[in-house]
Amino acid sequence: MNPRIEVVAIDSLMVRLFDAIDEANMPWILAASQRLRAAFGAHLIDLVPSYTTLMLQSDLAPALARARIDQALAGLAPDAGSSGRRHEIPVWYHPSVGPELPLLAARSGLSEQEVVQLHSEREYPVFALGFAPGFGFMGLVDERLATPRLSTPRKRVAAGSVGIAERQTAAYPAVSPGGWNLLGRTPVRLFDRERDGYSLLQPGDRVRFVAVSHAEFIALGGDDHPQEAYA
């Protein structure tokens, strides 16, 4: 591996480890993140891991920051003990809260139950956080479920909505605009200012969506108002 360092801003550098999104990238991204945090210590202002890169902001001069990055990443290798947490997130899959569920089934030639099974049988790594606080980009979904974003995004998507865009999947942590194809909804609170770190999910974590009944969803505190109520 030959990490490339790119200038982002006067105090920020982008460390590029890969050129394409792949689940196999994450152990390397996590290992690089740990090494860089240790190498920069109190000089580190922010470190943002993503699919193929890490953006590093520090108070060091650019030349010194580059040298420290090179030194930290020399001989980089994944650490089997550095994986993130594993989460099981309950989801009520239903057209009233996941209006694209029947459309995705028809497009892929599958039944709605087969779509649910394909979506919930995989364990997804969290590649990055973005778009909104606590919004974790995850993947990769089965190729049969890959579908483009909506041509016209919704103005308001219900909090907890679980959706797909291309081969990525995610859950909306709060009511917000969005153009992902919705399959269902989770009662889990993904962003909480009272939680240490605020976001339930962090890059490197792994997520398994678990299908639950409507009764279970309500018992867990879920909001079953139809998506149309948020339009």
From TrEMBL:
Keywords: ATP-binding, Hydrolase, Nucleotide-binding. InterPro entries: CT_C_D, Cyclophilin-like_dom_sf, PxpB. Residues 3-201 form the Carboxyltransferase domain. It is an enzyme of class 3 (hydrolase). Transmembrane segments: none annotated. Its EC number is 3.5.2.9. The keyword Hydrolase applies. GO terms for molecular function: 5-oxoprolinase (ATP-hydrolyzing) activity; ATP binding. This is 5-oxoprolinase subunit PxpB. It comes from Pseudomonas parafulva. The lineage of its organism: Bacteria, Pseudomonadati, Pseudomonadota, Gammaproteobacteria, Pseudomonadales. The gene is pxpB.
